[in-house]
């Protein structure tokens, strides 16, 4: 299937590992020019070199703290200068810590808002003017099934990621006239480092092992397994493509059926 992504300028945030890395590689395989960013430069550069080696695509990688508005703006400007355009932006960031409500400080709430909401605001504000020039753009956010069905011990994620969905809907309404589509991808239990960290927290509380916790999550999922980051990346790339040209303002669940609602 021709996705119409060859030569497109694509930014993927938090792309040194997990779903972000899988998405960056999937875009590269479609012939896009890909800009990767993450906080840790060494890990990021290793990831980018791997994507270049496996795909032969043009990949730009630069360490970036997505909670720093000025740094985000500079990164986007440099990417636009390098690629000549920005067509797709995947807003992604690591999840906030797993804690219950009473154990959280005000500072942790503010940090979660900066990491998971404001980073998306900063990226969208920086890339939209470039998309408007060509009257074509795709902004994708990566959140969690928690935006539909709260996850135990993830009150920060349950709360702040829901705000991202509100932002997605608002941006889709405002910028659809400019040919910019804005959607959200909400993964379920996916085999990433983040999930392993959550499994360790759950295992400690339950007196079990992380493996047993992950097996339990797989058993709860109708397809009886955890997701693979590449499967989530396929959804992201499709939403960014010409094949999803009439879809905007939506949250697409890639969760193996774990969400029980209609």
Plain-language structure description:
- With 262 residues, the protein is α/β, with parallel strands linked by helices.
- Helices cover 49% and strands 14% of the residues.
- Helix 3 (69-83) runs parallel beside helix 4.
- The longest helix is centred in the middle third of the chain and has 29 residues, at 106-134.
- The model has no long low-confidence stretch (mean pLDDT 96).
User: Mean pLDDT score, rounded?
Assistant: 96
Choose one word for the global shape: globular
| Major sheet size, sense and barrel closure | 7 strands, parallel
Share in β-strands: 5-15%
Encode the helix/strand succession as letters: EHEHEHEHEHEHHHE
Radius of gyration: 18 Å
Number of E strands: 7
Structural class: alpha/beta
Intertermini distance: 30 Å
Number of helices: 8
User: Low-confidence parts lasting 5 or more residues at pLDDT below 50?
Assistant: none
Largest sheet strand order:
3-2-1-4-5-6-7
Which bin fits the share of residues in helices? 40-55%
């Amino acid at each position: 299937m021709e996705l119409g992504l060859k030569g497109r300028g694509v930014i993927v945030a938090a792309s040194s590992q997990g779903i972000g890395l899988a998405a960056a590689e999937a875009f590269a395989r479609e012939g896009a020019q890909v800009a990767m960013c993450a906080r840790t430069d060494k890990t990021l550069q290793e990831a980018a070199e791997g994507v270049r080696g496996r795909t032969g695509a043009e990949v730009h990688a630069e360490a970036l703290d997505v909670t720093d508005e000025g740094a985000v703006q500079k990164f986007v400007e440099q990417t636009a200068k390098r690629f000549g355009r920005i067509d797709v932006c995947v807003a992604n960031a690591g999840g906030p810590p797993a804690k219950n409500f009473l154990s959280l400080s005000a500072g942790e709430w503010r940090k979660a808002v900066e990491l998971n909401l404001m980073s998306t605001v900063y990226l969208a504000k920086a890339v939209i003017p470039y998309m408007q020039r060509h009257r074509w753009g795709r902004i994708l956010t990566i959140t969690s099934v928690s935006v539909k069905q709260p996850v135990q011990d993830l009150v920060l994620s349950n709360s702040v990621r829901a705000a991202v969905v509100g932002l997605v809907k608002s941006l889709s309404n405002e910028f659809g006239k400019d040919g910019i589509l804005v959607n959200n991808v909400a993964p379920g239990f996916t085999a990433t480092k983040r999930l392993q960290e959550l499994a360790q927290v759950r295992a400690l509380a339950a007196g079990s092992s992380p493996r047993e916790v992950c097996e339990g999550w797989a058993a709860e999922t109708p397809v009886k397994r955890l997701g693979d980051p590449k499967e989530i990346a396929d959804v992201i790339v499709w939403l960014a493509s010409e094949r999803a040209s009439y879809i905007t303002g939506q949250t697409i669940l890639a969760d193996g059926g774990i969400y029980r609602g209609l």
